[in-house]
Amino acid sequence: xxxxPSLALPCPAPLRPESILAACEPLRRYVxxxxxxxxxxxxxxxxxxxxxxxxLAPVHGLAPSSAWRTSLARRRARSQYYxxxxxxxxxxxxxxxxxxxxxxxxxxxxxxSFELMVISQRCSTCGKSSAYYDYASSQTYRAGELFTAHAxxxxxxxxxxxxxxxxLGPFSxxxxxxxxxxxxxxxxxxxxxIQAVIGLGPPxxxxxxxxxxxxxxxxxxxxxxxxxxxxxxxxxxxANQTTELADEMAKQESLLESLMVDxxxxxxxxxxxxxxxxxxxxxxxxxxxxTFIRVPIVGRFTWAMQLESAAFRGSExxxxxxxxxxxxxxxxxxxxxxxxxxxxxxxxxxxxLNALGSTSCERLEELPNLEFSLGGTRHSLPxxxxxxxxxxxxxxxxxxxxxxxxxxPFKEVKICSLLLMTIDVETxxxxxxxxxxxxxxxYYTTFELGTHxxxxxxxxxxxxxxxxxxxxxxxxxxxxxRSTASGA
Length: 488
Hints:
InterPro entries: Aspartic_peptidase_A1, Aspartic_peptidase_AS, Pepsin-like_dom, PEPTIDASE_A1, Peptidase_aspartic_dom_sf
CATH architecture of the largest domain: Beta Barrel
Pfam families: Asp (PF00026)
CATH class of the largest domain: Mainly Beta
Shape: globular
Structural class: alpha+beta
Region (Disordered): 454-488
Number of helices: 9
Number of strands: 25
Strand content: 25-35%
Mean pLDDT: 75
Low-confidence stretches: 1-78, 452-460, 474-488
GO biological process, one term: proteolysis
Domain Peptidase A1: 94-457
């Protein structure tokens, strides 16, 4: 029942889902013993809603891969600014073009995961799409020897390690490692819109979990040896396997590493149907402290923040507290369509809105703002961030929005509803929130991976958010015409 962190483990042939899971058993046992920081992943969402946050445990004090050991000055000298358009799909998904081999694919930029995943035409459970990756058409493709399982809020995938050339705007990598998805239990893939997941979490997680598993097995071997007992062959094989895997993961570079990106920004425009932008190697927001506010990151390997004092506040209504008085954890996730909040927060929010009397999606201006503190700074989201129309087929819709009163459960519905997905995950800072696309529409958000210290370890990553509206991000892609107000 525990989530499988993204970790590659050798898989026996022939390739079958049960074989992959069996190969991942050492990791499963490690997770059960060590208990992940973020706990269980959120429950699956409707097909029209995307949740790509991978819930992983940040482990402090472990060195990242070799690429991040270069100096910040050297990285900055080699970096290149690039503003890329994100295509809007029904305000639920934002897609960026990325070229794998010679194939242009549509991928979700996802700050909730950390690896490049590509949906393969070999995947018989991923829906039918000619747009999926075809390794046979690439002359630069090379298959790896490792297999892995990924756990997302929207489902699970099993993948094979692969290598190919990658291009993203002006950036290019001759041989980038990625995971070729060959089996999936993820309904959102069936329409073929999502062809890749571009993981943008801080690098180092694959190495971290591989090294942790290797340490666990080596510790067990040591316990046998100190007692003068023979080490079981199976245990020795697993120790050798995970140690070799950790060494391999330490050599691999994530896409952010390969592109030499240590800072990027996400800007989603407020207008319905409008495209968004992602700015690679954006200018440092510290140069515009009158516009940007720094939000500290509390996890080294996830974009995790401390959230406190959630409340409804409006000009015509008294403040209503709805949770996190003793603190919560939050992840900034560009791969999640809505806001995900603890169950008790959603319940209090619904009670507070019902107490206002008649509410309507046609009169959102009458509703209060949703406010909370991130890293000690107050943030405010407008009513359209948490209330809107729900379209779908009941009872599937009611399963994920249990407060809806659907009299005709087997017909299409369009109903004004609270758009807060519920999530039941505990962190060391309290219940978990996922700040998805509604947050990015209100705040221009910059993700900074951190700086290199003298102790050969990276300082904590951090996020910055602009006090200006993201609507200012519509400028051209040239650095000289960027808006000072938004930092775009």
